[in-house]
Design a protein that fits this description.
The chain has a domain of about 180 residues: Rossmann fold, CATH 3.40.50. By secondary structure, it is of the alpha/beta class. It starts with 9 loop residues before the first strand and ends in an 11-residue tail after the last helix. About 45% of the residues are buried. Helix 9 runs antiparallel to helix 10 and helix 10 packs across helix 11. Strands 3-2-1-4-5-6-8 form a 7-stranded parallel beta sheet, with helices on both faces. A two-stranded parallel ribbon has the order 7-9. Helix 1 links the parallel strand 1 and strand 2. The protein is built from 13 helices and 9 strands.
Length: about 300
């Protein structure tokens, strides 16, 4: 198994966002030099404190990506979730910049649960399209696929429900089993693949156990030390809440995936329910358990001033 030269910086896309900043932290812990792609360096002071090189760029601006990629050999790429055509343009820009700089490998870190097989659900179609763009380029790459992020518990509305009302109410049936992962675990996995020179493979990053809704809140309760109940939020109500927070029409797009899970339980299980299994490149990877994760983030649950983090 080959390893990469850590004297050269790696480029991390969307570095100021929740998922991108997790990759930056994981890379710095492993001794990597990091070039962090951000839209506004003035809003990335936390990254500066980690000793990284900040470079401004916009994934919609091909020229800025080419400039950010100069001298880069390896990157962790993530395309923000959005309209399919926007994601195609952004993927084309990123891959064109990667090829122009002479990169030798990329870890493609998908932002949400996905499936490699063709499917009509829009978010899965968009993820598959991003994969097709990079595959057509012949640029060596490995894929990181998450199951469902525990970090969703820390979104302001979810945190308020948990702390103030003792309820966790996602738009997912209580019976759906999920091997919950975290942005930090997916970041660790991405950096491990880079570190070991893995340039191919499809890696589903999941937690160590598969739980239903009631088992999930039992573990949250143990981590927080207070009673929590599970209550499925109706998808229509979920759409309205997302529209109110993110703009009209967004709720329908975001809820589409959850409607797919509800109507295709066997496929939902394939994507979400299987606990992590070690494989080549991640033989010694140890995913974080739910209760342990909650204990690690206990202070954030009770931080009422915590603002939601934006995209990188």
């Amino acid at each position: 198994m080959s390893t990469i030269d850590q004297s050269q910086p790696i480029l991390i896309y969307l570095a100021a966002g929740v998922q991108g900043s997790a990759v930056v932290r994981a890379a710095r812990r492993r001794g990597f030099k990091v070039r962090a792609l951000v839209r506004d360096r003035r809003r990335a002071s936390a990254l500066s404190a980690l000793g990284v090189e900040l470079v401004e760029g916009d994934i919609r601006d091909a020229a800025s990506l080419r400039a950010a990629s100069v001298g880069i050999v390896h990157a962790v790429l993530q395309i923000p979730i959005g309209a399919q055509e926007d994601m195609r343009i952004q993927a084309d820009n990123a891959i064109s910049a990667s090829l122009a700089s002479g990169m030798t490998s990329v870890v493609l870190k998908l932002a949400s649960a996905s499936r490699p097989a063709p499917c009509a659900e829009p978010s899965f179609v968009a993820n598959a399209m991003v994969e097709d763009v990079i595959r057509a380029s012949s640029l060596p790459f490995a894929i990181i696929r998450p199951t469902m992020y525990l970090d969703n518990l820390l979104k302001p509305s979810a945190r308020k429900d948990i702390v103030e009302h003792g309820i966790f109410a996602p738009p997912i049936a209580e019976s759906q089993r999920i091997a919950w992962t975290s942005v930090d675990d997916c970041a660790r996995a991405a950096v491990s693949l880079l570190e070991r020179g893995i340039t191919s493979g499809d890696y589903c990053i999941a937690g160590p156990e598969s739980v239903d809704g009631n088992e999930l809140v039992t573990r949250i309760r143990a981590g927080l030390g207070r009673r929590i109940a599970y209550r499925q939020q109706p998808l229509d109500a979920f759409e309205r809440d997302v529209d109110a927070a993110m703009g009209p029409g967004t709720g329908r797009r975001v809820a589409s995936k959850f409607r797919f899970f509800a109507s295709h339980p066997e496929e939902a299980n394939e994507m979400l329910a299987e606990p992590f299994k070690p494989r080549a490149g991640l033989e010694d990877f140890q995913p974080t358990g739910i209760e342990e994760w909650v204990r690690q983030h206990r202070a954030q649950f009770f931080d009422t001033d915590q603002a939601p983090s934006g995209r990188g």
